[in-house]
Amino acid sequence: ALKLDRSYLSAWTLLGHEYIEMKNTAAAIEAYRRAVDISDREYRAWYGLGQTYEIMNMLLHALFYFRKAAALHPHDARMWCAIGGCLLGLDRRSEAEKSYERAVSLGDGEGIATRKLAELYREDGDEEKAAKCFLRHLELRYQSQLPGSISTSMADSSPEAFEMVVANVRVDEPEAEALLYLAYYYRDNMEYDQAVLCATRLEDYPGPEKEQGKSLLRDVRSRMDQRAGRRRGRSRSPAIPSSMRLRSRDLSLSSRSSAGGKVESSFEF
């Protein structure tokens, strides 16, 4: 195509992608630059330049080109994930979090931003925010399995929606990590039914999370049995006979002042 038309924009962009696959970064840069010379609104070429410089570990250059792509295509979560990755690599953590949050708000169907945000919040010790991100990750991955789905928050809307997401999401390594974290989170917050559901999904996963999930299940079920035992114990407590109950009408309290002004009380039955 380029032999026939050297100004064929999409061909230069696709050629850049091919060179990236071949790990020929110099040729990829040349192809992408040809594309943006033809049209500086070709966001895919700017994004490709960002990817190429990121591969070369030239993060400031990569960040510049990713931002150019995001300015042209601001509603694409992938752009903001890429920016977040560069910022994180440059130790600009707070800016990275904002970029990942922007990506999550735009859908993040691949689940990259939700996973990264969850890891950052976990490192900060913010367990609640980390749990919300892991749950959102499961939602987005589940929704990506459905044809024509729209990214909406659903798992925290009702117990039924939560069960549907957790029970049906495809479990790969990122989802196993999310399920394990949520299982521990729900256990520690005494939401045992949710913890059991998350841990149970790990029973068929062929990774280290499987054994951790089994151990967690035993612990949660033990705690559930203990709680049920305490409730049964309270329900079986013997009632106090009515003849032994102290009623207000049987008790009169009289107070009188002594000579020194001290109040003395006597109980009369």
Q: Could you estimate the helical fraction of the residues in percent?
A: 55-70%
Radius of gyration, in Å, reads 31 Å
**SSE order in H/E notation?**
HHHHHHHHHHHHEE
Q: Could you tell me how far the N terminus lies from the C terminus, measured between alpha carbons in angstroms? A: 108 Å
Identify the overall geometry.
elongated
Ranges with pLDDT <50 over ≥5 residues?
Answer: 240-269
Strand sequence of the main sheet, in spatial order?
1-2
Write down the overall mean pLDDT.
85
* Percentage of β-strand residues: under 5%
Instruction: Tell me the number of helical segments per DSSP (H or I, 4 or more residues long).
Output: 12
Q: Kindly name the structural category.
A: mainly alpha
Reconstruct the topology from this structure:
Layout: H1 9-21, H2 25-38, H3 43-55, H4 59-72, H5 77-89, H6 93-105, H7 112-123, H8 127-144, H9 159-168, H10 173-188, H11 192-200, H12 208-235, E1 252-257, E2 263-268
Antiparallel strand pairs: 1-2
Helix pairs in contact: 1-2, 1-3, 2-3, 3-4, 4-5, 5-6, 6-7, 7-8, 8-10, 10-11, 10-12, 11-12
